[in-house]
Amino acid sequence: MVSSDELSDSSELPVWQPLTFGGVASFARARFGRVYVLQAIVAAFVVGCVVLFLTRCWFPVVTRATVELTDFGAVRGGQLAWPGKEAVVLAENRFLGLVVDLADTGNTGQIADLQVEFTRDRIKFVSLLGYADLPYPEGWMIELNRRTLDPWWNAWRPAFLFGGIVATLLFLFVTWFALATLYTLPVRVLAWCAGRASSLGKSWRMSAAALLPGAIWMGGALLLYVGEQLSLIGLAAACGLHFVIAWVYLIGAPFCLPKKVKPTQAVGANPFTPVVADAGEPPVSAPTRTANPFQPPPTSDNG
Length: 303
What we know:
The protein has seven helices and eight strands, in the order αααββββββββαααα.
């Protein structure tokens, strides 16, 4: 006898890519290690996109801003001390702008997708996607002058880049694990309704693989944004769409799993052939056949 799980494991579907429904479904029969290796490859691609974004879009602005700082400037007692009252743009590009505006006048305008403004008592984050502010920490003394901040930033810039890499990796793997676990039961129920062979472990591996096309999509969108081929609104739309991509694969992949077979039916056997009992001694009550079909069977001498 062949079980449904054995039938699905014997499928000859290739297990190497998650870009089609069949490719995602093939991970149901793969080992967990294969899923982790593919996740690592996709994570490396996404991390590369993040590194390119930081080194080309944000870090150059911060480097120029530290050079444009004055020789005097610090945050003390939750207040910014700055040698001037007029708003000044320290550095900016299309992606990031750094501004000092003590009176919060907004006279500098905004051309960057994200503008960070240092006012007298708080930091403002202004973007097309929203607005937020953060007060300066009480009891902290932060030097915001060229003599202190410029060498500090040049020394710690590699550490910030490494921190961005680690944070991205942790975010990806924790998110993938949590979402795959969340989607496991719905995918298992969908496969059962479709009459497909599956289990909780196979459903988890399929769910994990179904998340990877959306991550690849998001990495590509970030590359387009860095290349100034996609606006911030377009990047936000791509971020929302990458969840939809995962849901499409989660719905379509279970239908590419092998169909269930009856446990009592051997694969390749003729269903119209009657089951033959094992060879052995005939039952006592069964009549003994003779060579002549017209000769009556022998009777018992008893009685």
